[in-house]
Write a structure and sequence with these properties.
By secondary structure, the chain is α/β, with parallel strands linked by helices. It has 11 helices and 8 strands. 47% of the residues lie in helices and 16% in strands. The structure holds cytidine-5'-monophosphate (C5P).
Length: 237
Amino acid sequence: MAEVIIALDLPDRAAGLDMVDRLGGEAGFYKVGLELFTSAGPGVVSDLKDRGKRVFLDLKLHDIPNTVGGAVRSAAALGVDLLTVHAMGGRAMIEAAVEAAREAGDAKGASSPRILAVTVLTSLDAKALGAVSGREIYDTRAEVLRLAGLAVTAGAHGLVASAREAQALRSSLGDRVLLVTPGIRLKGGDTHDQTRVTDPGGAVRAGSDYLVVGRTITAAPDPAAALGQVRQAMEAE
Ligand code: C5P
């Protein structure tokens, strides 16, 4: 059964923890991204772990293998459950991340984060991707599939992908790859700045393991009720 991860895209620790406390036992998995991590620091991950929550640390690491390996070790020491790296960092970088996660799991008392690869940022269209790649790119989806294959071959445990790509990734990469999908909206709900959204049922049908949901829940007048609606839409599948 797919699970919801709530994106805590909030400006600071107080706002983040206020949302976590409002949701209480209703929610067990949170995504901490660059905004909250940069403002609140690693302590916010410990705050979540102290409340018994699982944490997806979405830092999209992209650096030399030694540096990324070190960052994964630091994240593991915090108890992070899921962590992102850019597939474009290359095979050696992904392997270093996966190896650091595995070693942390072997070490007594540390958790072992699962490494998720980000392929092509959805903010890049074919033209922008061609400009950074130095070659003509006509089909960003083919690039997503190519980079996903590279990441999984290098040992990545999963991928961040839109629900629209999840089905193709599942059939080409198999059942063991974790698929984490953002861009989720309730049918008829506010899309905010997202242009390509999928409803919770569609994401479940596409084979997503985790649905990342932010403003649909965190900007709702009653976040717990909104989470209930998302779960209902998932279960209707
Ligand atoms: O508020 P909303 O549900 O749009 O939040 C979605 C979350 O997923 C945000 O944290 C956003 O950064 C992240 N995300 C995304 N699209 C991607 C990758 C990540 O919306 N392609």
